[in-house]
Design brief:
By secondary structure, the chain is mainly α. It has one domain. The chain is 82% helix and 0% strand. Helix 4 runs antiparallel to helix 5. The longest helix has 26 residues. The radius of gyration is 15 Å and the shape is elongated.
Length: 125
Amino acid sequence: MLRRTILPVLAATAWIGFSEFARNQLLLKPYWIAHYQKLGLVFPDKPVNAAVWGVWSLLFALAVYAISRKFTLLETTLLSWYLGFMVMWVVIGNLGILPFGILKFGIPLSLLEAFLAAYIVKRAA
């Protein structure tokens, strides 16, 4: 059980966490900060926010794992991406806190994130 369930989920969680950090803290942070400043807000990047993203990464990895049990790699990638990113972007777009300009980077990088997470769980399970 450990090798076929927990390890793939933990490996995918690590990949997702790294991907989220690289995309949002290293590549896109200036976009987020500028957008939040325009809204009169401060971009939330305290340690507690990183912890919540860690929880999100685990939940996303669990969803990818569950989806991967019934679907192909491509189907798992697309379903996971839709559930993890499209739904989130609709919600934060509705709240007015999504800088839509980041989507030119966010869409391809999040698809890569979902694909590699799906690949990890498919390969390791």
